[in-house]
Specification:
The chain has helices spanning about 10-45, 50-80, 85-100, 110-120, 125-130. By secondary structure, it is mainly alpha-helical. It has two domains: about 10-80; about 80-135. The longest helix is centred in the N-terminal third of the chain and has 34 residues, at about 10-45. About 20% of the residues are buried.
Length: about 140
């Protein structure tokens, strides 16, 4: 009879990022739900806003709910060391980094956070936690 595999030691930084990502995802979910519920109410209570104001808020709210669900799933994947969560974190960090560049100087915080995340997630011990082999590059 074989023994169960030992659990991987999750790096502290991954734990912190998974928790922060999860909290932000829950906030996105809540904000999205508020907008979805408030959209029709705004359209009804503020007639000068036009009939499509509520619709636009509702659609934006659904988009935030979608992002929140994706964030919760990615946080779970980060917590459990799933390779797809590593890849999604890298892809999203690159996209946020690029958006930060396009919005300078206001995007400086995005640049710092996404840059630090990219740097950290490419460290050998973090890649190992996600089941990825570190790549040795000779310069």
């Amino acid at each position: 009879m074989s023994e169960p595999p030992e659990p991987k030691d999750r790096p502290a930084g991954v734990t912190v990022l998974a928790i922060l990502n999860g909290l932000f995802a829950v906030l996105l979910l809540l904000a999205g739900m508020v907008l979805v519920m408030a959209g029709p109410l705004i359209g009804f209570l503020v007639p000068f806003a036009g009939p499509f104001a509520g619709l636009i808020l509702g659609v934006f709210g659904l988009f935030l709910v979608f992002l929140g669900v994706v964030g919760v799933v990615v946080s779970w994947g980060m917590w459990n060391g799933k390779q797809w969560a590593w890849w999604l974190t890298i892809i999203f960090s690159i996209l946020i980094f690029l958006m930060g560049i396009t919005t300078l100087p206001a995007g400086i915080v995005s640049l710092i956070i996404s840059g630090a995340t990219l740097f950290y997630f490419t460290r050998p011990h973090v890649k190992s936690y996600f089941g990825l082999r570190p790549v040795n590059v000779a310069i």
